[in-house]
């Protein structure tokens, strides 16, 4: 494939573009960070790769002046929140569909819905999935709450429940419902369930459009086609799908689960396509009749990465992340509470 780099009138093959990116990386004080769901050719360019929690932690420990983050906006924001001295650029300012389902105004509405059911604000402990923008994390931090990821959500909720409060879980209703089910707790979804007051975990009605693609019918299809197959899914999948899976785990947990399987053991995986495609090639299937690609993760191209690095070299960095100090301060409080645990 050849890329025409607009404005520069250059014509590069994929390999030439990779060489140019590697060359810029050597000359600049920059670290390229890539999430597991990125396109293969972009993922290959990452100096730091991983899931959202790994990326936030590893990038914090890195000392390069510039971070070029190939992922979605909330991830770049998390780096800026935790390391404000770094200059964070994103080749594409792509926004996760789930993170876009809530903002600070909708967050306030969720708190109000709980108050209307007789739950006083001081008895609400909010937890936000890391897949949320900085303004929502700041609201949660201000109300005494914290962030969680899909790897540590159960542990974070267990800790939070020690305070004896009702949990407001935003924005992913599926993760909240799945964790509640795993812990034998009662969950309710704002806007769907009439009785919020009797639930332990009250979930905002957001979801991941990619993980909604996996269904119980897909599980039945694979179990019938390959008797003995294992079904492994991400907890952003619908609770009905998680209930019939053999394994439910975060991205890193799924990678480990599949790597530990006998090579002859067939497995169908319910998570983003680019990641599944990069796992072991033999006996691994995508748990869907469609291609479950995350459109926003796929927005970042090799060309975008090259242009972003070139903009640093040219002294005019593009797509830089800025967060106002008040939002950053409170979002950091929410993130730090999670990291401390
Ligand atoms: Fe957001 Fe879902 Fe894409 Fe992850 S896969 S970035 S949760 S839309």
Structure description:
This protein has 341 residues and is α/β, with parallel strands linked by helices. The protein starts with a strand and ends with a helix. It folds into three domains: 2-95 and 297-322, NadA-like (Rossmann fold, 3-Layer(aba) Sandwich), CATH 3.40.50.10800; 99-207, NadA-like (Rossmann fold); 211-286, 3-Layer(aba) Sandwich (Rossmann fold). The chain contains 14 helices and 15 strands. The chain has helices spanning 14-27, 40-43, 52-61, 73-82, 104-115, 134-142, 153-161, 173-182, 216-225, 239-243, 251-259, 273-278, 302-313, 325-340; strands at 2-5, 10-13, 30-35, 48-50, 66-70, 87-89, 124-129, 146-148, 166-170, 187-189, 201-203, 230-233, 247-248, 267-270, 284-286. Strand 3 (30-35), helix 2 (40-43) and strand 4 form a beta-alpha-beta unit. The model is unreliable at 1-9 (pLDDT under 50). Iron/sulfur cluster is lined by residues 37, 72, 96-98, 131, 208-210, 272, 294, 296-297.
Main beta sheet strand tally, sense and closure:
5 strands, parallel
Write the element-wise H/E pattern from the N-terminal end onward: EEHEHEHEHEHEHEHEHEEHEHEHEHEHH
Q: Please report the number of helical segments.
A: 14
Low-confidence stretches: 1-9
CATH class of the largest domain: Alpha Beta
Cross-sheet strand order for the largest sheet:
8-7-9-11-10
Strand-helix topology:
Layout: E1 2-5, E2 10-13, H1 14-27, E3 30-35, H2 40-43, E4 48-50, H3 52-61, E5 66-70, H4 73-82, E6 87-89, H5 104-115, E7 124-129, H6 134-142, E8 146-148, H7 153-161, E9 166-170, H8 173-182, E10 187-189, E11 201-203, H9 216-225, E12 230-233, H10 239-243, E13 247-248, H11 251-259, E14 267-270, H12 273-278, E15 284-286, H13 302-313, H14 325-340
Helix pairs in contact: 1-13, 3-4, 4-14, 6-14
Bound molecules: iron/sulfur cluster (SF4).
């Amino acid at each position: 494939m050849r890329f025409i780099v607009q404005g520069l009138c250059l014509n590069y093959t994929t390999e030439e573009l990779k060489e140019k990116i590697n060359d810029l990386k050597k000359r600049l004080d920059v670290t390229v960070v890539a999430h597991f769901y990125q396109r293969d050719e972009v993922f290959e360019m990452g100096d730091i790769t991983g899931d959202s929690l790994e990326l936030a932690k590893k990038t914090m420990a890195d000392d390069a002046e510039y971070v070029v983050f190939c992922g979605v906006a909330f991830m770049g924001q998390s780096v800026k929140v935790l390391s404000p001295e770094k200059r964070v650029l994103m080749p594409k300012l792509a926004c996760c569909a789930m993170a876009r389902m809530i903002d600070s105004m909708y967050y306030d509405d969720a708190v109000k819905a709980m108050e209307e059911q007789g739950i006083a604000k001081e008895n609400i402990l909010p937890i936000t999935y890391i897949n949320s923008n900085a303004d929502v994390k700041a609201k949660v931090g201000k109300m005494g709450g914290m962030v969680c990821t899909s790897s540590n959500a159960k542990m974070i909720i267990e800790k939070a429940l020690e305070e004896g409060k009702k949990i407001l879980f935003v924005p992913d209703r599926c993760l909240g419902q799945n964790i509640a089910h795993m812990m034998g707790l009662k969950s309710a979804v704002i806007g769907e369930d009439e009785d919020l007051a009797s639930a332990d975990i009250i979930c905002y009605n957001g979801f991941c459009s990619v993980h909604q693609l996996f269904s119980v019918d897909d599980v039945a299809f694979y179990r019938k086609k390959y008797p003995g197959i294992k079904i492994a899914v991400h907890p952003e999948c619908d609770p009905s799908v998680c209930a019939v899976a053999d394994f439910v785990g975060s991205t890193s947990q799924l990678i480990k689960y599949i790597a530990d399987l006998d090579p002859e053991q067939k497995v169908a995986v319910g998570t983003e396509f680019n990641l599944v495609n990069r796992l072991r090639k033999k006996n691994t299937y995508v748990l869907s009749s469609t291609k479950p690609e995350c459109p926003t993760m796929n927005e970042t191209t090799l060309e975008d990465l090259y242009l972003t690095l070139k903009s640093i070299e040219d002294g005019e960095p593009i797509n830089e992340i800025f967060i106002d100090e008040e939002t950053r301060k409170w979002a950091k409080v929410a993130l730090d509470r999670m990291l401390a645990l």
